[in-house]
TrEMBL record:
It comes from Macaca mulatta (Rhesus macaque). GO terms for biological process: 2-oxoglutarate metabolic process; fatty acid alpha-oxidation; isoprenoid metabolic process; methyl-branched fatty acid metabolic process. Pfam families: PhyH. InterPro entries: PhyH, Phytyl_CoA_dOase-like. It catalyses: decanoyl-CoA + 2-oxoglutarate + O2 = 2-hydroxydecanoyl-CoA + succinate + CO2; eicosanoyl-CoA + 2-oxoglutarate + O2 = 2-hydroxyeicosanoyl-CoA + succinate + CO2; phytanoyl-CoA + 2-oxoglutarate + O2 = 2-hydroxyphytanoyl-CoA + succinate + CO2; 3-methylbutanoyl-CoA + 2-oxoglutarate + O2 = 2-hydroxy-3-methylbutanoyl-CoA + succinate + CO2. Keywords: Dioxygenase, Iron, Metal-binding, Oxidoreductase, Vitamin C. It is an enzyme of class 1 (oxidoreductase). This is Phytanoyl-CoA dioxygenase, peroxisomal. The keyword Mitochondrion does not apply. It comes from the Eukaryota. The keyword Lyase does not apply. Pathway: Lipid metabolism; fatty acid metabolism. The lineage of its organism: Eukaryota, Metazoa, Chordata, Craniata, Vertebrata. One of its GO terms (cellular component) is peroxisome. Its EC number is 1.14.11.18.
Amino acid sequence: MEQPRAAARLQIVLGHLGRPSAGAVVAHPTTGTIASASFHPQQFQYTLDNNVLTLEQRKFYEENGFLVIKNLVPDADIQRFRNEFEKICRKEVKPFGLVVMRDVTISKSEYTPSEKMTTKVQDFQEDKELFRYCTLPEILKYVECFTGPNIMAMHTMLINKPPDSGKKTSRHPLHQDLHYFPFRPSNLIVCAWTAMEHIDRNNGCLVVLPGTHKGSLKPHDYPKWEGGVNKMFHGIQDYEENNARVHLVMEKGDTVFFHPLLIHGSGQNKTQGFRKAISCHFASADCHYIDVKGTSQENIEKEVVGIANKFWGDENSMDLKDIWMFRARLVKGERINL
């Protein structure tokens, strides 16, 4: 199918997602096509029966592995998250367990506490203000369509993609989030990722490879980029270069939900501003932990455990399951396995 026809069909699908203006969220395919669905409800395997998603939305997620919901998170909440992030950057609040990250191009000698020096905060489960994102009814009503009623918030991030230094380190390589997760089944895990401002290709929007959630978990490692790579920015080593790509142009409050096997990444920020988004990975409380030793995930296990033990002290030696149990929080229903 030609690109204009694919883009036109995607616009029609996005028109079902809630806001009157069809142009407010534009997903631009740069190659290939967006799959259309032609199956019966009993064939759904990536979504659960619910009264929230329309049939078209459900089919779209089943075929493509992601779904954009327009204008989902109110401006007032976005502003509160932004204010709290700025307080964290200034070290006015220091939530327990929070990890503050900076770009690989910023040396320790240059670092001073400020928004311009902080590229990401993660594990904000102990920050009541930021963690409100994970409990918003607007978010959870969609999450339940993928996880069921017993919902765990597993991993939290607020991303502050910086203007690129010229070394292209603000990029995030194409990857699958399941690479980082020692719990299964993957079909009961979903990410909610909300734009905190207008996001497009200029400031490094998300790029997704539709339909790749139907494949298996691929080996990941650090890409061999000349300018350097940020810590734990693992990328897929052997993805198909000719896969269709969709760049998600989003407005403030727009939220994309996507499967943990969906291949995705983001480009460099070519602007002088900081591109912000807030996200949480949710999982069903029915999920269970697995041992990743001897698998393609063993490399990330060693790295995460090494960082955690350095953070907490070697005398408090932790394994990967310990780390994820520390992060996990019940946000709806009953806690079962996780």
